Amino acid sequence: MNVWKLTAANKLTQTETENPAPEEGKVRVRITKILFDTVDAAIFRGQSKAKYPLIPGRFAVGLVTDERSEFYPKGTRVLLHAAVNAPDTGTEKKDFSENDHLLCGRTADGYLRDIVYRAPDEITALPDPVDDERALLLHYVATAKAAIERLAVKKGRHIAVAGADMLGIFVCQLLIYQQAAPILIDSDARRLEFARACGVYYTLEADEHLLDNMASITGGRLAGGAVFVATAGTVDCSVPLSVCAQGATVALCGSTAQNLTVELDSVLTKQLTLACATGKEGYLESAINLAANSAVDTSCFRFCTVKADDVVAFLKTYCETDDNAVDEAVVISLI
Fold first, then answer.
1. Looking at the domain covering 2-137+301-333, what would its CATH class be?
2. Are 35 and 62 in contact (CB under 8 A)?
3. With 90 as the cut, is the pLDDT of residue 254 above it?
4. What string of DSSP letters covers 306-323?
5. Residue ranges of the domains in the chain?
6. Most buried one in 10, 72, 151, 227, CB count within 10 A?
7. What distance in Å separates the CA atoms of residue 236 and residue 226, rounded to the nearest whole number?
8. What is the pTM of this model?
9. pLDDT confidence of 266, banded at 50, 70, 90?
10. What is the DSSP letter of 240?
11. How far is CA 99 from the centre of its chain?
């Protein structure tokens, strides 16, 4: 089978190896498509801590190829989970950095390969209404759902969303679905313009006029809660803290290649509650239902498909800049 490995920063190689041996109690999956996003690009460039060699690719869909699988019929389309169970170390010391989970493409080998074996609870069957491209975005939707649930959102409440990347837009769409009023904040005017095209009504630039502009939207009040989108990388952690009212909850969500520093003075002074949502909480079934019921709109995103033979050359060029199109989702097709 084909395997693509990062042997060092900016060095991706393709090799052919034997197919992996069957694993008892696990399902054989043929990887069909992979999403390559900004976090994958940061890992590729060496901006995020990773141990080489590493197979990249955090989000993937595939087909069950087992002839006699007792869990899924052959040919079932499945979404592969980005977080998988860490091996049981018994009495040996564990790596507690990821608790009981490993993150594919980051702390464990990812999905840029032809075949993997996964436990039944590490894959989820996809319904026909959710095509492969939309399925590749479901981890974002699941993380957005987890973040919003931390806020206990009420109808009509203004919620600040700091970070206008794909995850931030999904957070806003789900808040609108729950009849809340998201206010999307970013330092990149292009991202905010694209967000408005995606149906986000209130957008603000993260500048010196932010608080005044926030007050003009909310009738002189600050936001009743906030979501900090770590994947965006364009807004400082202090922004969601500054725009929140006394006693509000701030949900921190997503992954980041950079270390984050939270100003606890603001947290203590305003008596804010911090909550985390990283996508490992088991919201994928909810995300599938939300996508199937059109609670989130992916039509505003443009899918750029890369063939397997072109992966090495494309990713080298793509990762030379972190200023790629805001509306583009890169999909690697392995079949």
1. alpha beta
2. no
3. no
4. EEGGGHHHHHHHHTT-S-
5. 2-137+301-333, 143-277
6. 227
7. 13
8. 0.92
9. confident
10. H
11. 19
